[in-house]
Amino acid sequence: MSSKRKRAPTKRAGGKKNKRKEELDIDSDLSDNSENENATQPDEVLIAGHGDILDDATPLPQELLKTLIKPAGQLFIFGLVNWDLTGRRENKGGQRLHPNINSPQRFANQKIRLAVSGCVSAHSVLVTEDGKAMTFGRNQFGQLGLDNTATKEQPTVVPSLQDKNVIGAACGRNHTLLLTDTGTVYACGDNRSGQCGVGNLQPNILSPMRINYRGPPIVKVGCGADFSVILDIKGGLHTFGLPEYGQLGHNTDGKYFKTNTKLCFNFETSPKRVVLYIEKSKDGHVSPVDVTEIVDFSCGQNHTVAIDSKKRAFSWGFGGFGRLGHAEPKDEMVPRLIKYFDSQSRGVCSVTCGSTFSLAITDLGGLFLFGQTKRTGEANMYPKPVHDLTGWNIHHVAAGFTSIIIAADDSVISWGGAPTYGELGLGDFTKSTSVPKEVTRLSGVKVFSLSMGQSHTLLVAQNETPEQIEKLETFEKFTP
């Protein structure tokens, strides 16, 4: 008898009354009220997942874990910390408001080895030194995994994962993925588009649930607004969730008309491998590219950029504002080679995506930006170097909704056009800047990791020597 359960009937897809269009109204793309008429009854779960009781869930190889598990340090936070207001125009609940934090402040009592948010997220995940997952922020759909939908100001341990060693996490608009040291992925939050990958369209998953995946162990997770991407140990990329702009890379945007006027989507409710990578010539000729292994990727709001083992970059999904780097604003349904980086001197070693833009660091240490960081003005339709950072040795990059922050040499540098909410950390007088500026308050602080939410920044700094501890003690402490 096969251990696989019978496949469920054909997937049903839910309609969206208003098709989101970023160019028309950015705020509409941030609303949490997308409609989905079929999110009432979950389908049957198709197959058991990796890390099932039936499987021997052994930890990933030690050498690999050493590269994935970051050293722990002191967490800092700055930006907008009124989680229910992030990306919304008014304070409907009339709750008590915190002032925006314009300079870095210490946060959380534990040492933190990983702090993660997302470019359209109003919630965050922290991983403590001993591998416990803690979450805080907006929780409207249960994205904090705490078995309720109450907003949390203080980081709170995720109870169902207390016995797991968490090594990775990713935040979407209203969902969260968590990765353990056995290469197993758990998901919670909004699942109305299948973005939690559990094999059904159960609308809210309040406690982390193992995703519906059987395959090689997973080593990295990523989230767009309403879709998810996971990378397995063999270099295979798998995607699930909303296919609207081709962002799943499966050569479809999943659209169909249920009635004359009702547009629906075929959601991908379980991880599905991305199998085709292409390049396009100037005359439109398409040819496949042989990709044996993807080594890194990053998700924006509705697009993804990935790097293969030959340091080539591929991008797909929503093409508006040039965020895919192909010199044209077309959506791409399958990963397409970014021609600009396809030369000896321009191999890409890391990528970071913001909501409507992408950043790439090349072999020679140059930082390139494509897409649009501001809500108005000119967009980079293809990768262009950020000349202000020429010569800097960049270690970490994080991107939010319109802001960017990097750690280079012994400095932290940030920039972003208005409106900003303190996420640049430049102090009370400089709220926004269109050119990279040094965050002088963090001068000399050794940064372990950086992450940005929609309007806030998380930074983990080394606090091992007495001098470092003494310096970090001079920062104010944030108490919600």
TrEMBL record:
One of its GO terms (cellular component) is membrane. Pfam families: WD40_RLD (PF25390). It comes from the Eukaryota. Keywords: Repeat. One of its GO terms (molecular function) is small GTPase binding. Residues 101-459 form the RCC1-like domain. RCC repeats lie at residues 131-182, 183-234, 235-310, 311-364, 410-463. Residues 1-42 are annotated as: Disordered. Residues 24-35 have a biased composition (Acidic residues). Gene3D superfamilies: Regulator of chromosome condensation 1/beta-lactamase-inhibitor protein II. InterPro entries: RCC1-like_dom (IPR058923), RCC1/BLIP-II (IPR009091), RCC2 (IPR028641), Reg_chr_condens (IPR000408). Residues 1-19 have a biased composition (Basic residues). This is RCC1-like domain-containing protein. It comes from Ignelater luminosus (Cucubano).
